Amino acid sequence: MYDQTYAVSVKPPVSPVAPGLERPKQPTMSQAPFARGLHWLHLPDANTVAQQAAAIVAEQLAQKPSASIVFPTGNTPLGMYAQLRQRNDINWEKSRLFQLDEYVRPEFDGPLPYQTFADFMQNELWRFVGGQKFYMAQYFECPAAYEALITQNQGPDLVILGIGKNGHIAFNEPGSQPDSPSRIVALAPLTRMSNFADPTQPGLPTQAITLGLKAILGARHILMLATGAGKQDIVATAFHPQTPPDINCPASWLKQHPNVTLLTDF
Ligand code: GLP
Questions:
Q1: Using CA atoms in the order 16, 42, 98, 84, what is the torsion angle rounded to 10 degrees?
Q2: Which residue has the CA at smallest separation from atom 10 of ligand 1?
Q3: The model's pTM
């Protein structure tokens, strides 16, 4: 494991420090040469991660009601979406809400054997809140146009991410360069195994459209959520303060960003 003195508190909130204990120090250059913009908050459990993530979204919209926010799918953000659905103190009316990625629908007759990410976003959050919603499915032919939509809306202000077990962010799989554009990608075998109960079932996607690393790294603020023991190793690899970013672990490029908040329950 890496040096725990690297842990720093996110602002806000700043948790009170018990008498006799010192607040963790901001890492010095020698401690963290490759992760200077990272605020890593080690939280006690997944529920606290969800609450804190929802508080960051609320704070973003309080500061800028017309913020452009990019939302992820997956199991990890479900708690955050539950928290956001419960909060009645957020004004979403001027917000611009974007998808992070979407499966490319395969040629297949019959009902889809998977949930599209548009349906996921709709069910988890978007049908409960106001604001302008931008879906990716009509951009398979021209992913750059979706990316342009975000920049035309002065975004992204906030990109929220999970992390794949192979270090992918959105669907930027290992091998992705930090300047990679939004594009159609082939899903890595490990990603299909993680996302589908039976990846050999007919009708499941083999490709996806993803926001590229360049657009993600162009966000003013990046919020990554990682919970559960299964994510501990890949997070430690991605954010190791002494090793440079590496194309084999796309999440490690976040170490080059000036404003990343990482919320974990480990
Ligand atoms: C998918 C998504 C990612 C997500 C990842 C992890 O592949 N494209 O955006 O971060 O899964 O999902 P989970 O949170 O279920 O582990």
A1: -60
A2: 162
A3: 0.89
